[in-house]
Amino acid sequence: TQLLEQSPQFLSIQEGENLTVYCNSSSVFSSLQWYRQEPGEGPVLLVTVVTGGEVKKLKRLTFQFGDARKDSSLHITAAQTGDTGLYLCAGAKPGGGNKLTFGTGTQLKVEL
Amino acid sequence: DSGVTQTPKHLITATGQRVTLRCSPRSGDLSVYWYQQSLDQGLQFLIQYYNGEERAKGNILERFSAQQFPDLHSELNLSSLELGDSALYFCASSPTTGTNKNYGYTFGSGTRLTVV
Description:
- The structure holds 2 protein chains of 2 kinds.
- Chain A is mainly β.
- In chain A, about 0% of the residues lie in helices and about 55% in strands.
- In chain A, the strands form 2 sheets. In chain A, strands 2, 4, 5, 9, 10 and 11 form a 6-stranded mixed β-sheet that branches. Chain A has a 5-stranded antiparallel β-sheet with strand order 1-3-8-7-6, with no helix packed on it.
- In chain A, a hairpin with a 7-residue loop joins strand 9 and strand 10 (about 100).
- Chain A starts with a strand and ends with a strand.
- By secondary structure, chain B is mainly β.
- Chain B is about 0% helix and about 50% strand.
- Chain B contains no helices and 11 strands.
- In chain B, the strands form 2 sheets. In chain B, strands 2, 4, 5, 6, 9, 10 and 11 form a 7-stranded mixed β-sheet that branches. Chain B has a 4-stranded antiparallel β-sheet with strand order 1-3-8-7, with no helix packed on it.
- Chain B starts with a strand and ends with a strand.
- Classes of the chains: A mainly beta, B mainly beta.
């Protein structure tokens, strides 16, 4: 059973376009993290959000944690070819220590 | 270099064999996590160790086992290998178990296991 569903599964866009990736669950999480993974490498942490409604910005990337702490979104403004990769959300359940459950992933391809 | 070292990077072995994957966590991190990544299943949690003790277990098969040694490095042992065990195996580390705080993971580059 996949607790965290991401959409879309695949996204192919032109450089300069905006996009939003969604991460949804019916479970409450104490925190949610976003990672980016490139071929042949392990995922790299982008951000951690812990408070319902929290918004964090990392240059052209904006992350939001849902008010009920069940969902999150990642918005990229003016995408660049360097944004290409697999984006993964990951949630830590309350009382679950630091064990993360990863989402299904969104494969993003940004072309010139 | 993330600071988490996994060896070997690639492994090709036959069905029925046994292999050991090794992970050295980032300096100062006490927790080690093992994940399996396949195309159809995504990143699946296998097991977590904290300072030498098992802390959490996921969908880890009985044919698989792991341990964390006093120097904090960890090994994942896979035995009686089947074709379906072919996947990327990742190790990650974090500073603590994060009972009151959630820490991000630092991942290694993974071991690509191919069972033929």
